[in-house]
Amino acid sequence: MSQYEAYYPLWEKLNIDAAKLEGALGAAQKRHADLFLTQADRPKAMGYFDDLWGNLQTGRIAELDKLKSEGKPLVGTFCIFVPEESVTAAGGACYGLCSGSPASIPEAEKELPRNICPLIKSAHGFKLLRVCGYTQSSDFIYGETTCEAKKKTWEILAKHHPVHVMHIPQKKDEKSMRLWREEVEEFQEHIEEVVGRKLSFEEHKKGVEIINAKRKALRRLDALRGMHGDIMPISGLDSLLVMQLSFIDEPVRFTEALNTLCDELEERINAQKSVFEKGTTRLMILGTPFAAPNWKLHKIVESSGGAIVNEESCIGHRYFKDDVNLEGVTTNEELTARMMERYKNIDCACFTPNEARIEKIVKMHKERQTDGVIYYTLSFCHTYNVESHLVAEAMKKEGIPFLAIESDYSPEDAGQIKTRVEAFIESIRLKRGA
Amino acid sequence: MSQYEAYYPLWEKLNIDAAKLEGALGAAQKRHADLFLTQADRPKAMGYFDDLWGNLQTGRIAELDKLKSEGKPLVGTFCIFVPEESVTAAGGACYGLCSGSPASIPEAEKELPRNICPLIKSAHGFKLLRVCGYTQSSDFIYGETTCEAKKKTWEILAKHHPVHVMHIPQKKDEKSMRLWREEVEEFQEHIEEVVGRKLSFEEHKKGVEIINAKRKALRRLDALRGMHGDIMPISGLDSLLVMQLSFIDEPVRFTEALNTLCDELEERINAQKSVFEKGTTRLMILGTPFAAPNWKLHKIVESSGGAIVNEESCIGHRYFKDDVNLEGVTTNEELTARMMERYKNIDCACFTPNEARIEKIVKMHKERQTDGVIYYTLSFCHTYNVESHLVAEAMKKEGIPFLAIESDYSPEDAGQIKTRVEAFIESIRLKRGA
Hints:
Two copies of one chain form a homodimer. By secondary structure, chain A is α/β, with parallel strands linked by helices. Helices cover 54% and strands 10% of the residues of chain A. In chain A, helix 14 (296-302) links the parallel strand 5 and strand 6 (306-312). In chain A, helix 10 packs across helix 16 (332-344) and helix 14 packs across helix 19 (414-433).
């Protein structure tokens, strides 16, 4: 008897290929156990997140199903520009869709070019294979125009699932921000259509408060893991899992669990307890997001004498660095204006120019006193890839050691990446010793 | 003594690397002679275009220099969305920049990723090497946001040359068109700043009339070469050269020379004179542009039993298919509105959705009764590459033979492409014979 048998009726209702999903889950759980549970001295409070990973396609999907039965919107996304605050305001769920596995890519390549970003191909393959409960549960997928491979893939994905596309501008001047605000307002109206009524200011404000609190807790984790010098109370790998799950879990419960973890990390810092040896090379990752279960680079770095103390990435710092400022806000119009202020500060490489990102990276390095940065580009992501030249120039000027890695989800280049990471860490150590 | 000695002072003034340019020109002229002058039965009127190719970096650059000395704007571009009508209205020159050669790519790869479009890398390399008179002459380069690799490259190119960026939206709804119109108006104001005065309606109208006439002549060539069944009075290769030079030459003179060529082609059609044997497989090329001297695919097809009767491409049909409708227009505001109507009809894959393109392709096929289509994607061009799946589906539905080719500027894949093109043509013949 399958351990998932209780979920078969739900999976069937969602038109999930249950046999395939069950096979995939076995592999995903084993990989999680191999990579995460084998780490020494893990914080006890990681148990919540391990369990959440275990319930990813079962318990959490049942929760979403319950929301749906109550008429709440379920919105799947691939980008931090889709206003989760508004979905939360409506009592619904806004979540990141499955997109981090190499296993679904061959299926996607029946409809998509091979030489586009693995995240997009993986997500498209999950839909074609019907093995992601999040995709299957979504009332609609909210795509956007932040990258051209995504933008064009929505046209094909729309043949398989309802897709809406938010037009994110490519500049941030006044007229672009005006267009963008109109897009956000249309999104809000769309959510109101799903729930069948206008949302009050109090509801909107509550939605923002919930997500602000989540971001605040993520910033707390960020400071605890990477701003106490040699004392690093949690691995980069564990921190990454927490951030990945921040796009999946119910936000209030998640925030509480994360604050519990942070309390434990504070105790560890007070007790000078680090999960890394003194002198471990402290690195920051810059660039494109790591969708679960894309743990390749973290595993490589942290088994090569390095520790990852921050991801300057959309699954990471770029997501939680800014809040919506609620001070003095009394109307929905003002609230939307404040949301736009926050969006304007997101320094995605899709914008031209994007100089603020470089200033921010230098500042982040100084705050964390990192030993170097690894610029990570998902293969064929032109925006972050071209921008890496400007970042590399700036790092050189600041004297910050810099390594660029471009990779897809295949395990095939792991050996080559490990060699490069080891040499990078060795060069930093030699320099430090000199 | 160098044959280019007379131009050395001009080249020096433009900060051109004269020795490098002279070497490059030798190769470019030889390649032109080998590919073009060896064709049998060429129209006599091609002489004008052969001469223009010969004067590309000499006589034409001297003409631009004269314009500049008269205070006229010189604007280099990479996209048909930059309003050449407005530059023409100001008496200036708007031209496509050198971007079709593999020779400049290694230099560009010092600053750009290897896995982006060869056109962008080639253009960037021409600037770094200082071997393109057009780039060097430009008051400014007007980039745009139609593709992300270009969009981000402008940030790096701007370190070497003045660059402005026009924000082209990614959708065509009302609010996107409003943003776009404001961008076009800003461009027009910028041109007026360069010439130091407002341009009158009559000047603007004249600019549009000149470019409309050029487009009309290009449509005439298009109909003559490909809409008379087995009678094809000019090769696809020669037609391509004409279209490539349409972005370089003085437009009034060019239009006259092209109409002279078309007169000759009409005579040939009346005399039932074709440059291809009866039964030659008639093909249309869809997709990304061929910047001179990128003649690889045309050479391969036309030496493999095929004839190219149309390029559904920005250097080609997408550029000249629509005019600005001047009927009843009496003010600059109305004129700009009409320009926007024309832009809205351009079916670049940068837009989502872009369904009109597929309907158009089917219509183009029917008008020309082609035997099949080759979908050409410049390597790593995500927008056209992803969209190719939708086009392939539509072609299958219509029963139109379809071949997809993705290639860069390197000569290395020529053999492999030839094998695929030959097999494609053979399969069409077998089907036709059956």
